[in-house]
Design brief:
The complex is a heterodimer. By secondary structure, chain A is an all-alpha fold. Helices cover 73% and strands 1% of the residues of chain A. Chain B has one domain. Classes of the chains: A mainly alpha, B alpha+beta.
Chain lengths: 337, 220
């Protein structure tokens, strides 16, 4: 069981290292120094070329969005067009980095969070991002304008705070998961020593169900139901994940709000950003659900028992590790910009 | 400032890998102009003159970011500050220039300054950059102007926006506007080769960007 767990973890790390060879440049500040850029753009290799192709087709959509924004200035009825496009923008743009997919998904993977709750987490974090953008731009317009504090710097500050929070959250989650699974491993060992006299070894996977007790060694081989319980939903850790994601405002939202507020289109700007949040929440929820389904499938495929436990443990630990590494990547990129 | 390459570790679950393939989009849009200045003897490129006119949504970003005295316009001091910020930030992207001669990258000197103007709520940028070594008009010279991070979308509205002063008769000028679908198809082999040989290879944007191409007969 120990060996399997270790093998799985190392395989996962090897896979991620392999994928990472398609080198990625992370730029938190924009290329011209005004405004922030969400994107982590692989500019090289096969993935880079794909991104270039996607971008060429994406420009049209973004222009429609800014066009609708300008049109609303002349004709208030165009608000609905803007809201519709903003919603679509939220859905598609959330496929890119910076919208909480990794953090929320990993959190759900690592904590056996019920899908229903996971969907709620996705929406709450998306709306918090919208609120942060609105509050930031309100602060810029009411307080910061006329000072030497730049909007770009204020946004950058929030970005760093978010990435630091994600890193800390990932570290805490990893610590928790390691402690939890290592404890169950050592508990397993203790049980073995008690039955050392028996020739039957508990290494055997017998596919027993939760209700069955392994005749030879006297304990259940099925996944610990307590680990599966949605009742263990911990609001404190959920809010940590939500806030870590939510305090970084989306760069697209900032652009819309800047133009809208400058032209006195207060309601239009706010509604547009809320529509984006709705779209973003949907995408994050869908992707997080896919991740959790993938995990459940993997555990079920392993047939329960020891392999099931091993896979569950490695996915949970892997999820926590990913949040930590993602946080570190984003934090170092943001600080070096 | 070295471009830092940070290894990006991806989650094990399939759905989590896809989102990290960044879906970048432009945050600023500008109409671009390029004027190529030749040396007096007409044999080499002396400098590239760039003018970028940002649209009103982009210009409002500049205004809100840099209007330190809150007067809803950018005055002399603020414009100079804007120029300095851009001079510093664009350095690592070669000021959005890609100049090659017969396919080989040609290094450019950074501009001395970036001029910024703000009129009728629209911001314009202009600057000039010269090649480090004299760039002789011989063979195939390609000049592309684009932001490799996709943050700024630079559009040459028509081919007249890319000009060469007093181009000698031995040279032919073309403006190449690659179609993204064709570009991927045509370059399939080289992209695959590049990925196999050197996954962390060069900027592939040169395949997609609008560029000015000068084909000059070399004199015997």
């Amino acid at each position: 069981m120990n060996k399997t767990l270790v093998r799985i973890i190392f395989t996962l790390l090897a896979v991620t290292c392999l994928v990472s060879q398609n080198a990625v440049s992370a730029h938190a500040q924009s290329s011209i120094g005004i405004g922030t850029n969400d994107a982590i753009v692989p500019s090289s290799g096969w993935l880079g070329a794909l991104m270039q192709w996607v971008n060429a087709h994406q420009q049209t959509f973004y222009r429609s969005l800014t066009g609708a924004l300008k049109a609303m200035r002349e004709d208030g009825a165009k608000l609905w067009l803007l809201i519709g496009l903003s919603f679509a923008y939220g859905v598609f743009h959330a496929a890119g980095p910076g919208h909480g997919k990794a953090v929320i998904s990993s959190y759900m993977l690592a904590n056996e969070v019920a899908l229903r709750r996971g969907v709620m987490l996705s929406f709450v974090s998306a709306f918090l991002q919208a609120v942060t953008a609105i509050v930031l731009m309100a602060a810029v317009f009411l307080i910061l304008r006329g000072t030497s504090i730049r909007m770009t710097d204020a946004a950058w500050f929030l970005e760093i705070a978010s990435y630091a929070a994600i890193t800390a959250f990932g570290a805490w989650l990893l610590w928790q998961k390691l402690a939890q699974h290592v404890t169950s491993l050592t508990a397993g060992k203790a049980a073995h020593s008690l039955s050392a006299a028996s020739t039957f070894t508990c290494e055997q996977t017998d596919g027993s169900k939760a209700s069955e007790i392994c005749a030879a060694c006297g304990h259940s081989h099925a996944p610990d139901p307590a680990m599966l319980s949605g009742e263990r939903f911990d609001w404190r850790s959920a809010w940590t994940a939500i806030v870590a994601v939510g305090i970084r405002p989306c760069s697209g939202a900032l652009i819309v709000l800047t133009f809208a507020f400058l032209n006195g289109l207060w309601a239009g700007g706010i509604l547009s950003v809320l529509a984006m949040a709705l779209g973003t929440g949907i995408t994050v929820a869908v992707l997080a659900t896919l991740a959790v389904s993938a995990k459940n499938w993997a555990v079920a495929y392993a047939g329960g028992g020891r392999a099931g436990n091993a896979i569950q443990a490695s996915i949970e630990i892997g999820g926590a590790l990913m949040v930590l590494l993602l946080g570190l990547l984003l934090l170092t990129a943001s600080l070096s910009a | 400032m070295m471009k830092s390459r940070i290894a990006f570790l991806v989650a094990m679950a399939g759905p989590l890998i896809l989102p990290h393939a960044a879906v970048a989009h432009p945050h600023m849009i500008a109409d671009a102009e390029l004027r190529v200045q030749l040396t007096p003897d007409g044999q080499s490129i002396a400098a590239l003159h760039h003018t970028w006119r940002f649209d009103d949504v982009s210009s409002s970003m500049f205004l809100v970011d840099l209007d330190a005295n809150g007067d809803l316009t950018l005055d002399e001091t603020e414009l100079i500050e804007a120029g300095k910020i851009m001079l510093d930030s664009m350095a690592m992207y070669n000021y959005f220039q890609l100049v090659t001669i017969d396919g080989k990258d040609t290094p450019m000197n950074p501009p001395k300054a970036i001029g910024v103007t703000y009129e009728n709520n629209l911001l314009s940028v202009d600057f000039e950059a010269s090649p480090k070594e004299p760039l002789r008009l011989a063979g195939k010279v390609d000049i592309g102007v684009y932001d490799p991070t996709f943050y700024v979308a630079l559009d040459f509205l028509d081919d007249e926006q890319l000009q060469v002063e007093n181009l000698p008769p031995a040279c032919r000028k073309t403006v190449i506007r690659p179609d993204p679908d064709e570009a991927i198809a045509q370059n399939q082999q080289s992209l695959t080769d590049a990925f196999m040989n050197d996954p962390a290879g060069n900027d592939m944007g040169k395949i997609f960007a609008t560029r000015l191409e000068l084909n000059c007969q070399t004199n015997g």
